[in-house]
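Why this split exists: single-chain examples teach little about how molecules sit against one another. For that reason, every record in the complexes split bundles all components of an assembly together and asks for one structure covering all of them. Below is a record exactly as it appears in the raw files.
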Amino acid sequence: MTVKIDTVMQTRCFGGTQGVYRHDSAATRCGMRFAVYLPPQARQSRVPVLYWLSGLTCTEENFIIKSGAQRKAAEWGIAIITPDTSPRGLNLPGENESYDFGAGAGFYLDATQAPWSGHYNMYTYITDELFSLAAAHFPIDSSRAGIFGHSMGGHGALTIAVKNPGQYHSVSAFAPICSAMRCPWGIKALGGYLGQHQEAWKEYDAATLIESRGWKNSPILIDQGTEDTYLHTQLQPQFLQEVCARAGVELELRMQDGYDHSYYFIASFMDDHLKFHAKYLMSK
Amino acid sequence: MTVKIDTVMQTRCFGGTQGVYRHDSAATRCGMRFAVYLPPQARQSRVPVLYWLSGLTCTEENFIIKSGAQRKAAEWGIAIITPDTSPRGLNLPGENESYDFGAGAGFYLDATQAPWSGHYNMYTYITDELFSLAAAHFPIDSSRAGIFGHSMGGHGALTIAVKNPGQYHSVSAFAPICSAMRCPWGIKALGGYLGQHQEAWKEYDAATLIESRGWKNSPILIDQGTEDTYLHTQLQPQFLQEVCARAGVELELRMQDGYDHSYYFIASFMDDHLKFHAKYLMSK
């Protein structure tokens, strides 16, 4: 099946190409945008690929204008693919009423509850549809893929990696939600998208999944600012520390003094994360 | 006279501090915002300072979220101050009607024509008021100052440097307007702010000023993308080449293959510009 992809924007950046694309998604049954950075090396051969999952309220744009990631991606020859954070423009009841649910807040799961089911399937979109589509349309080597993200997207990266260890070979996060089941953002999202049976929530809870399934592909690298407004109420890295210790998963949790939840924090440590992923993806 | 400065935002970034501030300006007779990046070295001693002048439609925010400049500024110990591009919120007739005149388009000059005069005095604001205020309130060494900018702001940086060689010791630009008098953006702005007597325009035209006054403090470093939509119609670097050759001013004009007018272009060559300025400011 040939999927039509429209180019929204394409521009030279650090010798490579930053693009934004749009396609009709089967998983979400609406138009979806995603961004792709291709380093200069991609003109010669297929390159390893990193998926970036953004946080609440973000689109595919925040990362590509704010993270500064293209510089080292160009140097080390890594593609970076940045999906949107949810379906858009469906006009479902309640879709645009809050910043932490509905549009901009897909939580990287497959919804089972009306009216979200059938559209809010970001888990399938990321792990299946976009993964295949990107491999077919861009000069990337999907056998060397890693995943990382921020906040809601850091939680998404952790859950998606742990559930698909054959597909993603390295994982890291900036200020991730560490257990969606145990924070207000997550409880609202899991309840709304999956209903009130908490058994279903465990399939999309990072701490629970790490404990039950483990993770051996790479250590888990986490940066977390000490002045992050959401540190104690939403993100709660102690949940990750506990389950990694119990499950024998190697966690490098770096508390970064004085940093907040913003892209100023993300940009400050982006090079470290790219270096971390490059180590695992380049050695494959 | 003590000026009150309000902190709009302050956050840790690459070990230093990115802030946005607001004050009541005497030069523009309205509230003005500006951004300051202080590198970690500023906690120990006063650091050299670079002023960044933005292009049409920008505020103080574009540079600080998109340029990626903080990384090398932190490494090399340089402060970067980013003013807004015009007065705001005065509700002058026509102020908000076009992207290239009025709000967001101050052109770094002192207006003489009603209703702009008395407010649209960005030349005095940058060279006098903000320069003094920054020296008084932040740990910067104003005897080691440079200036750079983009598009309208690149033109502003060139004119301001050339007219104040005792104050700015290095100058560079990304895709600058090279002669405001000879491009549609500039003709509209100079006519609107200064009236139709072209003698007055020469005081704010980069090519004219470089030819009449020269510039010996540093070479002039210019990066210009070959795929920039505005290259032939508005920016016209050949005017700069001509006057620099005639006036004996050293110009390094680098045509960058495939790049456009965006911050993706700016970010790609930001490190080179910071290195250029560091060389001149650090040796003072």
